[in-house]
User: What shape does this take?
Amino acid sequence: MDEFLGMTSHELKTPLTSIKGNTQLTVRQIKNSLSAFEKMQGMLESTERQVKLLDRLVDDLLDISRSQEQLLELSLAPCDLNAIVRETVQEQQYARPNRTITLDLPAEGTIPISVDADRISQVLRNYLTNALKYSSGEKPVRVSVSKGQENARVSVQDEGTGLFPDEQTKIWERFYRVEGAEVLSNAGSANVGLGLGLYICKAIIEQHHGSVGVESTPGVGSTFWFTLPLASSIESPS
Ligand code: ADP
Assistant: This one.
């Protein structure tokens, strides 16, 4: 009996030892691969950020050369301004979950306008990323829409660095950036700019027969706004 038990356990031990060894080795290899995958993931995420940044800068440069010749291509279509604003705000709320971005829409359901929705969204996105960038993380950004007789107005209000009166004019110029302007809240690739964003916003809105502006107090904050003609008040859309 003793001999039988000795032999059998020896036989059983051999595959067990091999299974144990293989399992330990596999676990170790998975751990190593996981850390390699984590490193690869980090590198890919960084590459993705750089690609986004380059993409935006190239878009800015393309837009600027087109806008100089009034050649920004617009595909106008009947749209609801409230829907464009709601979607763009939601997109930013999703991208910056740590920030408070409020939205105040007029009670009436829709605001009919005839615009290139992607371009209007681009303008609002630019205002929003600037507002988030030049105000600190705990400060809210408020977006509101109002409707007048002939125009609708979209405003983005921040409690950020604010701008002096001469800067309030110059920021709409090509390549102008406020000297020493401090980015108070990290916005990833949006931190970097060529001073083209607001120039392009102005070109887009003016090509839609609207206007842009800013009210600001240094150290208190800024409200950037744009207006667009209501669809009913447009006689000959271009
Ligand atoms: P950039 O892409 O370089 O930020 P913009 O044309 O969007 O260029 O903005 C031009 C300059 O206007 C910025 O460099 C910044 O100094 C100033 N600016 C824009 N938005 C704000 C804001 N909400 N608060 C304070 N300064 C702002």
